[in-house]
Amino acid sequence: MPIPSLQCDACMCDNERVEIEAAAAQKLEVQHHGWPKEPEVCAAKAEDYAEMVGTLWKNGETIIEPEEKFNQFAQHFHSDLEHWISEVSEVFHWRIFFVELVGHFAFSIFGPFSTPLLFLCYGTKIGLENRGFWIFKVSPPMVFQLVIWLLFAMAIVAYCAGSRENLMIIEPKFAAMCLFLRNLPIATKYAYCSTETWMSHNTKHIEFKYRAFQNLLSGWYVIPQENFEIQAEVAFIGVLGSKEQREEFTVRFLPWPQNGMDLFLMRKRIDVTSRTMFLAPTGDISNPDSWRRKPVRRRIIEDSSSPRDSPELDNSIKTLKNKMSKKSLGQMRSFVLGGEKKEGRKTMCEQAEVEKHLFQVAAAGGEVGIEDLFLYILKGISYSEKAFMPPLQRISAFFTLITVLLPSFLRWRNSGRFLGPDPLSVLFVVGVWPSNFICLWSSMLFIAVGAVDMWRRRALMRSCAAMISVQREFRRHCPAEVDMLPVLNLAHAPTVAGWRKLRQLCTEWGKFYQSRIRAFSAQFFFFLLVAVDPKLVNWNPCKWKI
Q1: Lowest mean pLDDT among 63-67, 143-147, 504-508
Q2: Tag placement on the chain: N or C end, fewer CB within 10 Å?
Q3: Which residues make Cβ contacts (< 8 Å) with residue 296, sequence separation at least 6?
Q4: Helices 94-110 and 170-191, interaxial angle, to 10°?
Q5: Closest-CA residue to 438 (of 138, 185, 140)
Q6: Which residue has better confidence, 399 or 226?
Q7: Torsions phi, psi for 294 (to 5 deg)
Q8: Where does the sequence pass through the membrane (predicted)?
Q9: pLDDT tens readout for residues 250-277
Q10: Any residues with CB less than 8 A from the CB of 156 and at least 6 apart, and which?
Q11: From CA 510, how far away is CA 103, in angstroms rounded?
Q12: Which uninterrupted H or E stretch holds 238?
């Protein structure tokens, strides 16, 4: 009788062989994807792997290991991240909020006499210089804040020395409220800085251009047009990954119909209204600089010799993208600060060509990368914002000036005197004007920027909806550049996954600014509630009348 074990080894069936080979292949695949390997395998292939990888990363005569090159790129990226991206954080730091609130309150009231307290708050002279509190170093922020403090100190002295009967009751209360509202937005802005960034403001000298761009109204209250790409880079890193990984995410469009047969096939696949049934965009925009900007459309005719698939367009997009240098965040930062004006203008012209060719590829039914499509949508939103949005800074400054002068107008109507009956009241009224104006203007700008941010987010989400339907109710309130694009081919599975990533990019873009605006809105509402309701000011429930 034969031995069973020998018989099984000699006469192994095909099914068992297939299972063993599949298990071995699965084990090899698991090891290939980074799961733990046997120590002897790692030791045997370590030298071969190092030699193979080292030859792939040669730079001149030096050999750069992939991990070392990745670390260099990460360090360079995080050095830019420290100055720009972490400037605003998702976390509200209460300690930083109270330190900045106390520091700015102290300088607003006591001026240079608050220097010992400011040293306790910030610890170094560099922190005072970066905030314009150090009077021994002349700088535009320091001169501006010193003039505001001198006028406000003059108003305080006049209020204490003069007769309060010559002033309206609302004027000192209004000055105190404005003093608080002037420092509340500043403390809120610093509270959304990361701890490392806030500490760098106290230990490193910040260049004037960066400080003026980020710390003053133009950088803190609004997202500049040049900063759109930087915020998009943050969203790309969080949603899509590195630049090499982003190339894997593409979407495929359905082509715009060129003749009657194409229109018939399009009507079978998607919903088409009677208004857009016989019209297709040409790629141009009518009235590009006005709020009536719309895509130019042509009538779909029976005979058309337009090419269906154009590989030259796809190649031209790749050629243009290869010509455009892949800028790091540091190069973007220098471009925003005005260090690369000539190269910036050249890049803008090339970007316009890329946008034009992107529309042509999409209209022909080609594939477009998610990164290019999202930047195309952002450019359209920035163009629409310039055309649609009124000059909010000028409008808010005008209404702020009326609000500041309103008590004086009421005094002039009642007593015939605009500034007051005696010189001390005149000094008080004139002294509080600059502080009140700066405070109310900054608060109104914050509110206006909140409205602009909501408009941007609605335009982003409308642009996502426009990618899956040509119905007008889904394409209303989206940029004209997005309205020109055809719908996505949802029968293509990678396109559906790409559209989901596109929607996530639209929600992730600029979320740091949204968090800051929401926090300030809540604080502003609570302060107005306390200032208006006397029951909250005099917190004594026993005296309340029900």
Answers
A1: 63-67
A2: C
A3: 281, 282, 283, 284, 285, 286
A4: 140
A5: 185
A6: 399
A7: -145, 155
A8: 101-122, 142-161, 395-412, 424-452
A9: 999 988 887 777 777 777 777 666 555 6
A10: 109, 431
A11: 29
A12: helix 228-239
